[in-house]
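User: Structure please.
Assistant: Input sequence and predicted structure:
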Amino acid sequence: MNELVVIDDDELTLDLIARRLRGSPVRVKCFRDSELAIKYLTDHSGVVLLVDYNMPGQNGLEVLRKLACAMDFDFTRAYLCSAAELPDAIGAEARSLGVAIQSKDLYRNRDQLVELATTG
């Protein structure tokens, strides 16, 4: 797994992640449009997926529900990311989909992003 797919509505956040990982062994694919991301991911398994929880239109959990119907998560590690603490019910539903919860603080740490995307 050396591909990191990030779904976030914030263009600055996506740019930050892409810049942090420039020159690393990780390929980064960023999406502001969750529907385009879903189309991409149905053809690309074996990635590490970071999905922002707080997005307009549909939140990250709704995106992950759609993905769970459209693709097999067996070869994809997915993380629901949030800057704030998520309610227990959201965390429980995410885990039932095989999705882990991750703080968006991760986005600031290049080494952790590389490790996340290259181990597995």
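The domain at 3-118 is CATH 3.40.50.2300 (Rossmann fold).
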